[in-house]
């Protein structure tokens, strides 16, 4: 994570964050959440791109499915970023930051519909793996709100991957 993001926010009037999680643990969890945010944003943007550009016999089905998924993902981005802020750190918010943190690579062009679905399966699986790694860190820090957030994200991304895989079967 970029150095500026690693630093705790200096609170107004010297108020220290004291929520029962050490500064070191808050930093580690915020870093994992930053990776989650970067992967989630990349997946959101890719899904929205595919929604706009899908063609073929499954157009209506995929167009609607992609819209449902990117709309849900958009809402989640805010929740992830706000959790990073609640832990006392800045959330990444630039393409450069996302590029350095994300495990998902955005496609270079517009693939065929079946390739879009395959790409989104892999993207949802990648976000699930990122969430699992962050979940372990949050559990170790006894950070229940982050554990709850990541558990919900895991459920959604695993379900999305299953639904997308079903189209390819």
UniProtKB/TrEMBL annotation:
Keyword DNA-binding applies: yes
Keywords for the protein's UniProt record, in alphabetical order: DNA-binding
Domain Ferritin/DPS: 32-168
Keyword DNA-binding included in the entry's annotation: yes
Residue ranges of the TM segments: none
Coiled-coil ranges from the UniProt annotation: none
An MF annotation (GO) of this entry: oxidoreductase activity, acting on metal ions
Domain of life: Bacteria
PROSITE patterns per UniProt: DPS_2
Similarity field: Belongs to the Dps family.
PANTHER family (alphabetical): DNA PROTECTION DURING STARVATION PROTEIN, GENERAL STRESS PROTEIN 20U
Full protein name: Starvation-inducible DNA-binding protein
Organism annotation: Pusillimonas noertemannii
